[in-house]
Amino acid sequence: MGCTLEVLSSRVFVRMFGSSKPVVLERYGRRRSRWRLPPWLVLLLLGTALGVAGVIVVQERYLPARLSAADSVKLQADYAQADADRMRLNGELAQTTQRLDAANADKKKLAEQLADSQAGIERLREDLVTAIGALPPDPRGGAVEVRAGKLAVKGGALSYELVLTRDRAGGKAISGAVQFVVAGESSRGGESSVTLKPVAATLGPQAVLRGSAPLPEGLRPRQVTVQVLDAPGGRLLGMRVLLV
């Protein structure tokens, strides 16, 4: 009887509802199946872990070190200071640009005034050439002609204004000297002749000389011989006698 019950308890075949399939009854009830993760969930978790590990490796090895809280505060303060400096420099740049524009405008205006002045000087030069050409020639002639002259005594000095021209000048000025031989009455009442110190001059096609030369004390000039030399004490280029 005991064996029969043990056999019956271990496995009993029951036909239920006319089914021909056997029903197996386990000794300790129905065995539970083991739970497993889905393959897609395993792959997802594995990929996530690999991604996190990769980010950590790249950050630790190749990217700059992460800033601390104090460093972040300092970086923000430096950025704010740099931004303030940038705004200040932009303001200074704008002011400098305005000053530069004003300077360029002044430069343009001065350039226009200079061009007008040069044009005026050129017209005056042409007028001077025309006026000198209308003067009578030097009776003595010479390489340099004294076309006109005005002499006067002012404050113990001989004041002079001379107009000189050169033949075949070629437009190139040369260095020379003008020397005055003054004849007149001395302080003692007799005739006297004095040669004054030569005056350096630049001789171009036309030259107008103005200036003064000191006279000996007590000399009252009557006439002056104007000598044009190629250098002080050098060769005579032209001469003319003028009354004072």
Structural commentary:
By secondary structure, the protein is an alpha+beta fold. The chain has helices at residues 2-10, 39-61, 69-133; strands at 144-154, 157-166, 174-185, 191-195, 199-203, 206-214, 220-229, 236-243. Strands 3, 4, 5, 7 and 8 form a 5-stranded antiparallel beta sheet that branches. Strands 1-2-6 form a 3-stranded antiparallel beta sheet, with no helix packed on it. The chain is rod-shaped and about 155 Å long.
- Count of distinct strands: 8
Mean pLDDT: 82
| First-to-last CA distance | 181 Å
What's the level 1 CATH class of the domain at 144-243? Mainly Beta
Contiguous runs where pLDDT drops below 50 for at least 5 residues: 1-19
Instruction: Count the DSSP helices.
Output: 3
Query: What percentage of the residues does DSSP assign to strands (E)?
Result: 25-35%
CATH structural architecture of the domain at 144-243? Sandwich
Structural key phrases:
alpha+beta, 3 helices, Immunoglobulin-like, three-stranded antiparallel β-sheet, rod-shaped, five-stranded antiparallel β-sheet, about 240 residues
Secondary structure: elements and pairs:
Layout (H helix, E strand, L loop, with lengths): L1 H9 L28 H23 L7 H65 L10 E11 L2 E10 L7 E12 L5 E5 L3 E5 L2 E9 L5 E10 L6 E8 L1
Antiparallel strand pairs: 1-2, 2-6, 3-4, 3-5, 3-7, 7-8
Q: Can you summarize this structure?
A:
The protein is an alpha+beta fold.
